[in-house]
Structure formats: C-alpha cells, structure tokens
Write a structure and sequence with these properties.
With 98 residues, the protein is of the alpha+beta class. The chain has two helices and six strands, in the order βββαβββα. The protein has one domain: NE0471 N-terminal domain-like (2-Layer Sandwich), CATH 3.30.2020.30. The two termini are 18 Å apart.
Length: 98
C-alpha cells in the first residue's frame, strides 16, 4: 500500500491519504510510541525498550520527509529523530483500525 498524499505541515499531526482512498491521521505521540529505531527497539530480540506510555501527549513533529519510496522520517519535539517508519508498518499500525 502506497501513500498518495502525506501532509505534515501541522506540527500536531501527520496525515496520510493512501492509494486506496483510506486516510490515516497520526498524532506525533502515536508515532513516537511506534518508533522502530534501534534506540527504541532491541535489534536482537525485537523487544521495545522505549515505553510508549512515557511519551507526552502534547509532543509535536517537524521536518517530515521521505526515505526513498518506502518510508518517512521526522523529528519529534523531544529531540528524537532516528526513526524510519516504513509505509507498510504505518498502514498496519493505523490507529483507526479495529
């Protein structure tokens, strides 16, 4: 599944319109809680080492940009900026999915 439009101009959300017309809106705190980087998830065990419950709800984002044709990255107001969020994982972890 590929994004058709990614909007990150509002620091309080990231909006993705997918190629099938579905729209996902993420709060920066949700994305920070899902961060897959080596600082947040143990590379060997796959166990999350960063507690998503500790992420402030008022977190913001800046510097949203594409990583190739498969992911996006951004900088959070807590200074974290090493996460690469693959599109397939973003769609799978859609906060609106039941």
């Amino acid at each position: 599944m590929q994004p058709r439009v990614i909007t990150g101009s509002d620091p309080s959300r990231v909006r993705i319109e997918w190629s099938d017309g579905h729209v996902t809106t993420y709060l920066p705190s949700q994305l920070r809680g899902l961060c897959p980087c080596a600082g947040c998830v143990n590379e060997v065990t796959g166990v999350r080492t960063h507690d998503p419950a500790g992420v402030p709800e008022d977190l913001t984002q800046t510097n949203l940009r594409l990583v190739g044709h498969y992911a996006l990255t951004l900088r959070f107001s807590d200074g974290h900026d090493t996460g690469i969020f693959p599109f397939d994982a973003l769609r799978r972890d859609d906060p609106g999915r039941s």
